Amino acid sequence: MTNVSMTVNGKAVNRDIPDTTLLSEFLREELRLTGTHVGCDTSQCGACVVHVDGKAVKACTALAVSLEGSAVTTVEGVANGDMHPMQTAFNEHHGLQCGFCTPGMIMTGIDMVNRYKAAGKKLDEAAIRDELEGNICRCTGYHNIVKAIEDAAAKM
Amino acid sequence: MSDGIGARVKRKEDKRFLLGKGKYTDDIRVENQSYGAFVRSPHAHARIKGIDASAALAMDGVIAVHTGPELKADGIGDIITGWAITSKNGEAMKIGAWSPLATEKVRYVGDSVAIVIAETQALARLAAEAVEVDYEVLAPAVATGKAMNPGQPLVHDEIANNMCFDWEVGDEAKTDAGLAGAAHITEISLINNRLSPNAIEPRSAIAVYDDAEDHYTLYSTSQNPHVARLVLSAFYNVAPEHKLRVIAPDVGGGFGSKIYIYPEEITCLWASMKTGRSVRWTAERSESFMTDAHARDHVTSAKIGFDSDGKIVGFKVDTIANIGAYASLFATATPTYLYGTLLSGQYEMPAIYCNVKAVYTNTVPVDAYRGAGRPEATYVVERIMEKAAREMNMDVAELRRKNFIRAFPYQTEVLLAYDAGDFDAVLNMAQEAADVAGFPARKAEAASRGKMRGLGYSCFIEACGLAPSAAAGSLGSGVGLWESAEVRVNPVGTIEILTGAHSHGQGHETTFAQLAADRFGIPIDNVAIVHGDTDKVQFGMGTYGSRSGPVGMSAVMKALDKVEAKVKKIVAHSLEAAEDDIVIEGGEAKIAGTDKKMAWHEIGLAAYMAHNLPEGMEPGLKETSFFDPVNFSFPSGCFICEVEIDPETGVTQIVQFVAADDFGTIINPMIVEGQVHGGVTQGIGQALMEGVVYDDDGQLLTGSYMDYTMPRADDVPSYTIGHGCTPSPNNPLGLKGCGEAGAIGSPVAVINAIVDAIGTDVEMPATPSRVWAAIQSSAMPQAAE
After folding, report:
1. In chain A, what residues touch B20 (CB-CB under 8 Å)?
2. Taking a C-beta distance cutoff of 8 angstroms, is the pair A87, A79 a contact?
C-alpha cells in the first residue's frame, strides 16, 4: 500500500492504495467516478482517456501512485455549468450511440482542440480522423463524432 | 409537431452519457459483493482428467472455487440452442452438450472450467491462475472447410463428421435444369471471414442472491433481459421466473453478441446462492475475444446461369458454415433461415437451390452478429452478379436492372415473400449521389497519379422485423417473436411507455417517445421510456434483427390506439359530445368546430379521479398491447463504394461511400443515419481489416486489439446517405427496420470496388498485403506465354 494525493476534478483526494492500482481503477473503484470506462486491456480503445495536468492520458496505462501531486480531470469534471461545448456538440451532432466510448471521445476531443489552438493549427476533418487513432467506437462509424469535434472546435 | 414522427429530435438519453453518469453493469455496486474469475481452457480440445484447486483455496481472500460437476449435481441445465433445424434427409440437427462449466472435455480456447470467487478482482484473477487443471490434450478440428472430412477429430464424440445439420432450401432439380439451359454460367468460390463483434463495453454480470426471499437479481449486459430470465429459469433451472429479476441497465453496444445467455451469467447466479455472496464478473477484452460469440465464417461455392438476354435462369449455392464448438442460441437459424432465404436478392430468379452444412469446430461458438446470415447472402449474390456482368461484358448496374423484381408482393423460390420495394429508385438515387457518370474521368485522373480506382455496387435486401411468430415457429423457432408495449398516462398527464425492446445505443428513449408526442401533441419531455428490467416491464423479446421499429414500435402504436380510444370516450362523456367529434392535437382533446376542450393533464386526472366516467368504464388510463407481425419487413438499398488503391503498397482508400436505403417510414432521420454510418463502418471493417484467426492448433491469434484490426476514424470516409421510401404494408407505421442494413450491404460494395480497380478477385479482409499480392499475381505473365 502506498499513500497517494492528487487533485481530481478540482478536489483534493488522498488514499492508501496497492501499488498496482491503475489510474482507471483508482477513479472507478476508489473515487466511484465511473464515467471513465475500460473497454480493453491493451490501451487501444481509448474509452478511459482522462486529462492529467492538462494532457490526455489513457487511465489504464498509468499507475495511480505515480501521479502524486497531479491534477486529474475526468469526463465528470469538464462541464462548467450545464455541459462543456464538446459535450453539447456531441448531442447536437448525434456523436454517440451506446455511450460507452463517449467519455474517452470527449476527453480526446477537448485535448486535440486545445493542442491545435495552442499551436495555431487548423483542426480539419483529416486532422480529427488522424487524432482519433487511439479511440475506438463501434457504433457511430465516427462520421458524427468528427462533425461534433469540428463544431466544438469552432465554439471552444 | 416538432417532436413527432420524421423529426430530427436530439436524443433525450445523451446527457447522462456525456456527463459520465451512465449506469452500465460494471458501474453498479451491490451489498456483500465478491468477484468471480473464470478458469479457462488454454487448449482447443482436451479431456479434463482432474482439477486441483487447493493452491487457489489456500490464498487469503479466496472464498470458493466451483466446477462443472457441482453445477450438474444441483440440476443446472446445459446451454440450449433456440432454433431446431431439420436436415435434408429428415434427421433432426445434432446438438452437442454445452455445460456452463465443462465437465469432461473442453472444446475451445477459453471454454470455462471453473469459477474462482474472491474478495477482490485482482485476487480472483490470480487465484484462477493457481487452479491446476490436468488436461489430456486432443487434436482439434479447426478449419471450417475441413471439419467434416473423414478422420478429423470429433468435437463431440457422438457427432459423426462434426456435422450439426445438412440443410437445404429451394428446388435442386429445377435449378439444375435451369442451369443446364443457361447461355452463360458464372461460378465463384468465397470465404466469408470470421468476425468478432466487439461491442466496446465488455460483457459483465452481477448476481445477487437474497436468501431471506430465495430471490435472485442479475444485472447483465443483455439485449433481451426477459429472454435471459426465461431461459435461465426454464432451461438452466437457476430459479423460477418469479424468483429471478434480470436488469439490463445501460448497455454499451451489442450487435448480437449480447443476445445470448453465456456460461458466466448462469455460473455467477448459481455461485451467488452457493456462497451467500453477491458475485460480479466483468470480461477483460481478451476474454471477449475468446468467449463472445463470433460471426460469419462461411466457405461457399456458387453458380449462376443467365439466358442469352442476361436474365437469371438458376442460382445454386453450397455453403459450409462453422458454428464453433457448441450450438449457441441463434447459431442454427443464422446460416439457414437468415441466409438461404435471402439468396434471391433483389432479382427475379426462377430457380434457386441452397445447401448448407453446419459444422462443429474447436473454436468459440459462432452466432448472429449485426446482419446475421443476410450479409453472407448479400456477399454471395452481389459478388457473383458483378463477376457475371464482367464476364458477359455488361454494365454491372444494367445486369442488375435487367433482373430487378418490380411487382410486389413477390414470392421468391426460397420461402420469403417480399412485400414492397422500389429497387430502381434506390439504385438511381445512389448512382446520382455517387456521380457515377463522372467516374471514368476520376479513374483516369487517378491513373495519371499511378493509382487504381474502382467502383463497386451492392444492391441488397434483408428480411428484418423478426419475426412473425407462427412462421418462425413453423421453421423451428423455439420462441414467439412478437413485442409488447404498455402506455401509462399518469394523473398529471405525463406518459410512460414500457417496452420489451431494449436500447443499447439505438436511441429508443427518444424515438419511442416521438410516437406519443406525435400522437397526442404533447412535449417529448413529458414522455419517459422504461425498458430493460423484468420487474418493471411486461414480458418482451428484446432488440436484435432490426425489430425494435417494425415490431416494438408497432406494439406501442397499438397501445396508443387503445389509449386514444379511451381518451375520446372520457372526453366525449365529460363534454357531452359524440366520440367521433373529438379531435386530439396539441396536447388537447377538442370537440371539432367548437372551443370546448380538455387539456391532456385534465384528461389524465379525470381518468384517475373517476368521479365522472362513462357508465361501466374502469378508472385509470393504461393500456397494453402485444404486436405480432404478419410478415418480415424487407428493407432494401443500394450502396456504391469508390476506392483508390496504391498498387505499390496495396493500400485501399475509400474515397466515397454512398448508402441509399429504403427503410420505409423513418421516425428520426438523425438516428437512422447514425445506424447506417455505424453499420457501414462495421462492414468496411469486415471487407478491409477484420478477421478472427485461429492457428492449426486452435489457438486464437487475434486475441486483442493489437492483433484484431478494428476500423479507426482514419480508415473510413464521411458518408453520403439517401433515403428511398416504400412503406412496409405489414405494420401500422410502415417501418422496415434500419439497424443492420449498413453491415449487410457494405462489405460486398467495398470488395466489388476493389475487384473493379485491380481486375482480379480478392478475399476479405482485403488487407494491403492481399491486395498487393492480387495485383502482382494478375500482372504476372502466364508461364505458357
Report:
1. 33-36, 74-76, 103
2. yes
Q: Using only the alpha carbons of chain A, give its radius of gyration.
A: 15
Contact B21 A35 (CB under 8 A): yes
The DSSP 8-state label assigned to residue B202 in this structure reads P
Are the Cβ atoms of A138 and B18 closer than 8 angstroms?
Answer: no
**Nearest to residue B272, comparing CAs of B88, B63, B106?**
B63
What is the average pLDDT score of chain B?
A: 97
Strand, helix or coil for residue A63: strand
In this complex, do B678 and A34 lie within 8 Å of one another by their Cβ atoms?
no
Please state the separation of Cα B692 from the chain's center in Å.
18
- List phi, psi (to 5°) of B289: -60, -40
State the best of A74, A75, A138, A146 to mutate against chain B, taking most chain B CBs within 10 Å.
A138
SS3 sequence, B617-681? CCCCCEEEEEECCCCCECCEEEEEEEEEEECCCCEEEEEEEEEEEECECCCCHHHHHHHHHHHHH
User: Which cell numbers hold the place of B660?
Assistant: 441509399
> In 3D, which of B356, B352, B270 has the Cα closest to residue B315?
B352
pLDDT at B780: 63
| pTM of the predicted model as reported, rounded to 2 decimal places | 0.97
Please, is A15 exposed, middle or buried when counting C-beta atoms within 10 Å of its C-beta (0-12, 13-18, 19+)?
Answer: middle
3-state secondary structure of B393: coil
Give ipTM to 2 decimals. Answer: 0.98
Question: Are the CB atoms for B258 and B504 separated by under 8 Å?
Answer: yes
DSSP output for B425-473: HHHHHHHHHTTGGGHHHHHHHHHHTT-EEEEEEEEEE--BS---HHHHH
Distances from the Cα of B158 to the Cαs of B87, B329, B492, in angstroms?
17, 21, 63
B554 CB burial (10 A radius; 0-12, 13-18, 19+): buried
B286 vs A: CB within 8 A: yes
Side chain identity at B465, as an amino acid letter?
G
Question: How many angstroms away from the CA of B714 is the closest CA of chain A?
Answer: 5
B467 contact partners, CB below 8 Å, separation of at least 6: B477, B481, B545, B547, B629, B632
Distance of alpha carbon B261 from alpha carbon B268, whole angstroms: 12
CA atoms of B704 and A43, how far apart (whole Å):
10
Rounded alpha-carbon distances, angstroms, from residue B200 to A37, A99, B61, B510, B534: 9, 10, 31, 22, 25
- Which residue in A has a C-alpha nearest to residue B704's C-alpha? A42
B502 and A CB contact within 8 Å: no
Please indicate whether, in this complex, the C-beta atoms of A76 and B29 are within 8 angstroms of each other.
Answer: no
The pLDDT tens digits of the residues spanning A54-113 come to: 999 999 999 999 999 999 999 999 998 899 999 999 999 999 999 999 999 999 999 999
Q: Under a CB-based contact definition with an 8 Å cutoff, are residues A116 and A153 in contact?
A: yes
**CA–CA separation, B647 and B669 (whole Å):** 39
B18 vs A102, A138, A143: nearest CB? A102
The Cα–Cα gap between B109 and B283 comes to 15
Residue B562: helix, strand or coil by DSSP? helix
Q: Residues 6 or more apart from B156 whose CB is under 8 A from it?
A: B94, B96, B97, B107, B162, B360
Instruction: Give the Cα separation of A99 and B14 in Å (integer).
Output: 8
Residue B779's pLDDT is 74
Is residue B784 over pLDDT 50? no
Decide if B741 contacts B462 (C-beta within 8 A): yes
Secondary structure of residue B752 in the 3-state scheme: helix
